[in-house]
């Protein structure tokens, strides 16, 4: 897959790339194509089709690449606009920035609150109905009702995903991560995706799937931020001239970072955890100002949720009364531990890490398998969803029958059984005064099941056999569920399996440890999270904020460190795996060691298409039509300069605006002034995904084809450049650190044309480099 | 002050700079100096002396600048070395990396523990003695003992700072921040500084100064990391060949980042806060691998401290028994609030922000005043320290006399008075059954005073008048104390004043709010911290970890946001101010708006000195002797190439090693192979501060002066370059983001020499640019 394609919605796999391999024979388009060096051209062209696209098994679609380069302000036309900015406009800009952060926080907080309440009520209704039928011993009817509702909800979620927004399926975190890395996957932040993500997530979680709403919340936050950043809608006349300052990649990306942080904050009620998640996992570029702004956003989310909870404590939030926003409580446990406990905890972390990496491995395989089914059409997608829903229903209704009825504990402070509310003791088929421990885990929402597993001071509450069954069931159901066409977060399945594993370990170590089994469940969850997600600080803080007990910090840290280290020696984090499966050209922060032995020239590939400072309209149009390139070097030539000089870089989108404005002249002359009168800087502002001017929108007359247009006003006169002999590793670091989209490669020797190629994201992809140089062996060397 | 000076300990203000202004007439050194453009040269040269040096009022010393550029691996010689690395070496490298993180954590944790216990015991002894004399009504003797001990301790601390390590005075956070930005201030991380920092901090805090041990702990952590990173000592034959992989700027800087995080973790027992502090305040460059490693380091610190506390609960840690490592406890307070409370909290934050920025303003003035005294010599320094110690003693012993004796509360769970241990009720001059509330704050350690102010559920404990007196006293004592020659942290004075302010506000709002006064004290402290330090997330987390109550999060966030925003509209954060006063050339993360209107060529200044690929030894030696430049472009010329080409960049330190190795030849030929046999890559590893080969160490014979040396093996063949017409803002971003030390400016036109100048840190300093272009008006535009 080529990362550098046109934005015109062309869905074919465009395998051309910008830049020329060697540049020794660079001509002016279209008359002279560069003749390529024979040694490399042939394998290069045949390899090309097989490089990045081969790993793009699922959803290999075209992704316009974003740039953090301030190109927009470097063009003449924008420089003028920038200079004319008055103080008041800067004030507007800053106010808007904070206003947007506020809105993102409010929106995401409300979405989180809504999602929680809806799940609580829908799932609550289902569970109440089932319980009532169970009371009347109408077991088969109960199963039918339970499975029927589950399948209905699941089918609805699947249908939304399959027909309205396929991009809403899955966690959404990998896509947000890719966006923040510069890859704008197709319609990943569209309004329809937002709608389906929220509704589908509510339906999916209510349907009893082993999925969470955390990943979807992150995606929701990002979608809300993106919609705000696009600045209203022209269709509904909701535009605002102030917004034009936000129509650039940098501000949009900042806002989406805020959205991702807000999502985690809303999902876990963990504001600091949200900021750290955005920093550690989501964002590829970070500035200190962003820390400050994400923090504000998550603070708003925290306040919104707090207001919501205050409202719900009055009992107005439906069946379960508290809106599902209670935190997991392992507080009040006295945390004292000895050396043996530490050894036990280390072991727990190590095994958790291994199980986590196996989880990743299996999820990978399952997604690849499901993708074959899903690609056959919406019908297949929905069938798969229904099949998994049926499997889940059978497990969660069938397995509790194998558990023995346990007598209610005498010293319990809560009533037992707790059938009509959230609580640890579900009676299921048991007589009064007894409860079914497996049903307490299965016949409830995932959040409640986790809460039950975390519950402290109740060591004997769950039998070892029940915990084994539950652990095995959720471990495999979690794996089977990810990849079907519903919005499905990965946090909750992992926490659920991890908590069951931890509590099980706690029961097994019961005789030798003083640690509470609820605490063991928490540590188990931490070990699984560390083993699958591979985050550290953010997970630690999220878990602490969830449980509200800072004294657990050293133990949680220890477990996370061990499990991440162990798991890292087997495979990559689950989000990185999904990124790879989806074929998104994610750019790693560090350069690979083999890049040290290559130079920039080695990976640049042709043909390179350049424009003259004042270019024939026909040439431009032909170049735009026949290539998918997004950036073209502009070269000043005699008679305007003494020798050919690199003037800068023009973007396809800006060229389209320029051509639409028809600022043509019959002669090759500078015509800046005329142009500025016809086109304003506002027209060049970045349009929303798929909203910009398309090539088909242009209406160039035949006689205009031979006219000239001055490209200087829209040329970014300060493109980042590297010398062709620059080490590829250093070029990669430059490209990644500055968030570039194009990088000009200039010749070392002065006898050559002023630019020998363009490096794009595609050229740094390992698949591309290994395609060119099959002899290079990537040796693993991670930090 | 020139940021780019030689490393040879030359203490004069070297105002030369690398690079040439225009480069139109660049010659080969030493025969032809570039003739400079007349329009700019004259004002440039006269301006030069006045630029950065003018603000360097205090301690304007030379700072070698570090670089994150992987130059070391780009040289031929290192490339070979890199390729020959075996898997086992990579394993060694990784093991060592984690081993160092472990050692840094252990060292800093132990230092923190030691510091706490020592302060607790020394100050405890002093307070016990005073109390016993007060009991016997020997008030004057009590004052003499109290003031005498204080002055003695203060004089000792001052003498250590004045005679052994002047660099140990002050907080140390600005210096660490500068180091992590690439400025290695003189002996800031030397072993003597470490020793004085620890001892001086213990003495200073024990002497009753309004100073903290937090800043010094950060500095201590950084020193420990730096000493480890220098890899033992050749003097004591403690070298280890494995360590050579750490002898580069990047690994050393990573370790110092870990050290800074460990320092905060040790000072506040806040591991997550430490990581965030390193991220938000200390570090200028961040990589995700660093997050992971700092987290590990702070986890080790947390465990060390926990073991220490466990040990101390057995009563073996001296007078006060618990080693001063108790956290502030505001837990157990029910945090419910209404809209009026929120308004009150916002107001509290706003006023706190204003007071904080006034604090910064006054600290700035006081430091400038003190620096005039301190520069006169060690005697003056110590006298100043003694004067402030006397003032502090008078305040803390004299002011409590104005307070009325209050009856011990009847419902108190603790005994009253609490004279022989840490506690809220000091009797001072009061009869049994009564306590002096002002003495409870003054006649104790700063930590205990904060704990008393934070104490919940004791609204009436402190009178409003006492709080006013205490607030005024610590606010001004804190300002007077910073800048004297003792290690003095800023966190504790600010928290102390803020807590007094908050508790005062709590007493005043008593009738209208339901919030606890202890909580108000916490929020007051947060508002002051936000107003002076201007951190957000890290402060928030540190405060939460100090108080161990996550439910306070939304309020603390709110206060921090408000106070930082308010204070930011007046002046900069206190650490940035100190950096500026010290004249350290700190490079901001963002480019200033006026830089958009300049291009790289505009700020480059000459003369440029370049070397040929195979250069005369005499030329090199002369260049090294007559300039302070640290990097020299190497240019390949005919007959070796067709036209002059930029080959790369050599560093002064590498040239010195090369010259010392005497790999000379009589002819201008390539002699790579011979050289590699005589010098190993290990010799080029970065030496510790001031430990490298000096120019005087070279012993070049007269006949060798006319011989040639091949510079190619030590040339970094991939220097980062910018075209001369590149926007200065973009060049600055490139320079800062990649952590460069030198950046080559290449010509746009092909008819010019291959390099027209070098950009260094100095060239991006606002003072330099305003010196060149006095017409530019910097307009404030912060985010």
From TrEMBL, chains A, B:
Transmembrane segments: 90-111, 142-168, 255-278, 290-309, 342-362, 382-403, 518-544, 550-567
The CBS domain, residue ranges: 714-776
Origin: domain of life: Eukaryota
Similarity remark: Belongs to the chloride channel (TC 2.A.49) family.
Gene Ontology terms: cellular component: chloride channel complex; plant-type vacuole membrane
Annotated localization: Membrane
Entry annotated with the keyword Repeat: yes
Keywords, in A-Z order: CBS domain, Chloride, Chloride channel, Ion channel, Ion transport, Membrane, Repeat, Transmembrane, Transmembrane helix, Transport, Voltage-gated channel
Mode of membrane association: Multi-pass membrane protein
Main location: membrane
CDD domains: CBS_pair_voltage-gated_CLC_euk_bac, ClC_6_like
Ranges in a coiled coil: none
Pfam families xref list: CBS, Voltage_CLC
GO molecular function ontology, one term from the record: voltage-gated chloride channel activity
Region called Disordered, residue ranges: 1-24
Native species: Senna tora
Protein name: Chloride channel protein
């Amino acid at each position: 897959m080529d990362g550098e394609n046109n934005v015109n919605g062309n869905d074919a796999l465009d395998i051309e790339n910008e830049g020329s391999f060697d540049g020794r024979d660079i001509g002016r388009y279209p008359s002279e194509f560069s003749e390529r060096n024979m040694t490399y051209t042939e394998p290069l062209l045949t390899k090309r089709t097989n490089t990045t696209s081969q790993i793009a098994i699922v959803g290999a679609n075209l992704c316009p690449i974003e740039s953090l380069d301030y190109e927009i302000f470097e063009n003449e036309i924008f420089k003028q606009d920038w200079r004319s900015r008055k103080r008041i406009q800067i004030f507007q800009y800053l106010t808007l920035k904070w206003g947007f952060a506020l809105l993102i926080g409010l929106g995401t907080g409300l979405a989180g609150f809504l999602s929680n309440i809806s799940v609580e009520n829908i799932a609550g209704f289902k569970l109440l109905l089932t319980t009532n039928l169970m009371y009347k011993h109408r077991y088969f009817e109960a199963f039918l009702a339970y499975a029927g509702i589950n399948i209905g909800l699941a089918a609805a979620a699947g249908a939304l995903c399959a027909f309205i927004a396929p991009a809403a399926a899955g966690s959404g975190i990998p896509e947000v991560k890719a966006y923040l890395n510069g890859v704008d996957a197709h319609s990943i932040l569209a309004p329809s995706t937002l709608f389906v993500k929220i509704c589908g997530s509510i339906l999916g979680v209510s349907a009893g799937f082993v999925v969470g709403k955390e990943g979807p919340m992150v995606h929701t936050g990002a979608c809300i931020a993106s919609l705000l950043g696009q600045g209203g809608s022209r269709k509904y006349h909701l535009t605002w001239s102030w917004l034009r300052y936000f129509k650039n990649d940098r501000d949009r990306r900042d806002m989406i970072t805020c959205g991702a942080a807000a999502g985690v904050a809303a999902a876990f009620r963990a504001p600091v955890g949200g900021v750290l998640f955005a920093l550690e996992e989501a964002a590829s570029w970070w500035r200190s100002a962003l820390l400050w702004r994400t923090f504000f956003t998550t603070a708003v989310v925290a306040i919104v949720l707090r207001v919501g909870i205050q409202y719900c404590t009055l009992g107005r939030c439906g069946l379960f009364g508290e809106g599902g926003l209670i935190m997991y409580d392992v507080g009040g446990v006295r945390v004292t531990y000895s050396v043996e406990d530490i050894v036990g905890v280390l072991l727990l972390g190590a095994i958790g890490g291994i199980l986590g990496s196996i989880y990743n491995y299996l999820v990978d395989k399952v997604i690849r398998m499901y993708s074959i089914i899903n690609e056959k059409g919406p019908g297949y997608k929905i069938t798969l969803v229904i099949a998994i829903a049926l499997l889940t229903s059978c497990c969660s209704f069938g397995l509790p029958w194998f558990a023995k009825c346990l007598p209610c504990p005498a010293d319990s402070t809560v009533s037992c059984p707790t059938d009509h509310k959230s609580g640890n003791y579900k009676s299921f088929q048991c007589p009064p005064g007894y409860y079914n421990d497996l049903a307490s885990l299965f016949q409830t929402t995932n959040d409640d099941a986790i809460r039950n597993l975390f519950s402290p001071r109740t060591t004997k509450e769950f039998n070892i056999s029940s915990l084994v069954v539950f652990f095995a069931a959720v471990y495999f159901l979690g794996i089977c569920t990810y990849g079907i066409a519903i919005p499905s977060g990965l946090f909750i399945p992992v926490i659920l399996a991890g908590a069951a594993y931890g509590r099980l370990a706690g029961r097994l170590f019961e005789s030798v440890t003083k640690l509470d089994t609820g605490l063991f469940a928490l540590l188990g969850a931490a070990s699984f999270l560390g083993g699958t997600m591979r985050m550290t600080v953010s997970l630690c803080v999220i878990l602490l904020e969830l449980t509200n007990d800072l004294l657990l910090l050293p133990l949680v840290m220890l477990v996370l460190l061990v499990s991440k280290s162990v798991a890292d020696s087997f495979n990559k984090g689950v989000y990185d795996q999904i990124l790879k499966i989806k074929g998104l050209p994610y750019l790693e922060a560090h350069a690979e060691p083999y890049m040290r032995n290559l130079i920039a020239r080695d990976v640049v590939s042709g043909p390179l298409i350049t424009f003259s400072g004042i270019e024939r309209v026909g040439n431009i149009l032909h170049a735009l039509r026949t290539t998918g390139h997004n950036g073209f070097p502009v070269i000043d030539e005699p008679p305007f300069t003494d020798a050919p000089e690199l003037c800068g870089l023009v973007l396809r989108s800006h060229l389209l605006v320029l051509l639409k404005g028809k600022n043509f002249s019959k002669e090759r002359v500078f015509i800046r002034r005329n142009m500025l009168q016809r086109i304003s800087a506002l027209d060049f502002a970045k349009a929303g995904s798929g909203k910009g001017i398309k090539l088909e929108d242009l209406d160039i007359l035949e006689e205009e084809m031979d006219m000239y247009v001055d490209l200087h006003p829209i040329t970014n006169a300060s493109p980042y450049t590297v010398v062709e002999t620059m080490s590829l590793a250093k070029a990669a670091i430059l490209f990644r650190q500055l968030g570039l989209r194009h990088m000009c490669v200039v010749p070392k020797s002065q006898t050559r044309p002023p630019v020998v190629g363009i490096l794009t994201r595609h050229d740094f992809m390992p698949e591309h480099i290994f395609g060119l140089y099959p002899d290079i062996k990537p040796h693993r060397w991670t930090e």
